[in-house]
Amino acid sequence: MNKVAKQTERFRELLGEINEEISELKNEIKELKRDNSKLQTKLTEARDKQTDIFSAINESERLAMRQHIQGLVQKIDNHLGSES
Prior knowledge:
Number of helices: 2
Strand content: under 5%
Number of domains: 2
Order of helices and strands: HH
Structural class: mainly alpha
Distance between the termini: 98 Å
């Protein structure tokens, strides 16, 4: 075998390895896209199930919480006012 033939054969071997690597990477990308899609679906489902604190309680509880918070704010204001 002459030098050109050896180089051609080596080139084809390397090209085959590159093609195999590309194929493996494409398959990995497909798997990652599938996993990403599943995770996106789970995230969307979790967001749909989520509620904020105020929508999870009824109106009377909401009013009681508001009055309690206003009372705490008033106490803080009074405390800060008495220190001045």
